[in-house]
Amino acid sequence: MDLKFSRALVTGGAGFIGSHLVDGLLSKGCQVSVIDDLSTGRLSNLGNNKDHITFYRADIRDQHILEKAAKQCDIIFHQAAVVSVPRTVDNPVDSAMVNEMGTLFVLEAARKNNVKRVVLASSSAVYGDDPVLPKHENMNPKPQSPYAVQKLSGEFYARLYHDLYGVESVSLRYFNVYGPRQDPSSPYSGVISIFMERASSKEPPVIYGNGNQYRDFIFVKDVVRFNLMVADSDKVSGKIFNVGTGRFIRINRLWEMIIKLSGKNIKPVYEAPRPGDIIESVADIDRAGKTLGFKPDYSFEKGLEETFKYYLTTNEHLKLDTDEHR
Ligand code: UD2
To answer: Does 72 have pLDDT greater than 60?
Structure first.
């Protein structure tokens, strides 16, 4: 696939998803710039790519840097955000400054500098716990956290910039993205990264609730492929897409699969459900299939194995234990 756009800006490009996007864009021969304040992103996520990109260490609200970077690109992939739901619950105002105003600044920089397209990272959080399943893009959003409201407001602005100013904008509602480089260090990190970490130490994982809750887990490389397809399509401007697999995994099953990969025998500890936890989440991916021809490449087993290999190489403890086991 040769991209229509050759110069890309990735905000949050040193983060988990952003850094994979940088990999994908460079492999397509794109000229890539990154803005990241390294508040949660890491330079190490960029590896040798650091030498092949223009890197701006800056807050997404630094309009001067944003303008400068926007001038040199045709497309912006906006990944920078306060990504933790509980963090936005604790800090609704500060997080809105980043997630809402930051997104508006990005769209405005695009408008002023004739950037052709902006692809926004939105979230399945906008659906809230509407019992209707699978979640379809036409459903009425029911945001239940500051995070969800902030993402939804970004979608509305994106649509507005498309209608009012002709900025081609697309909002992608990510479901549960997992893969290498996901940081397990906070209690609010993605469950797969936490479970991988637990499998490497001798500590049992905590499963909140009875573990029957489920999620639509999508491998990060499929998310990158989705973004690249969106960048290249003539049929997406002003639209919203679910980014998921249409399949789901229960949390109990997830732990069983990780334990099998690690060769250990650790029983989980069950605790009370997390307040506000959604029980069931799975995407309807019909729109992506019909519009873009998107279908995930990675089965859950394959993605989990690749993620596990990453944790093996980055975690000596896990490596030694598994070597002993085999
Ligand atoms: C995901 C996104 C979030 C937002 C939301 C939309 C991540 C990291 N977060 O939150 O940004 O888009 O979806 O609704 O992708 N769990 C355990 N033990 C643990 C950690 C988690 O049992 O140690 C459970 C948790 O209670 C939940 C499930 O695993 O039922 C998934 O949790 P998560 O934090 O990975 O993601 P989620 O869906 O809450």
So the answer is: yes
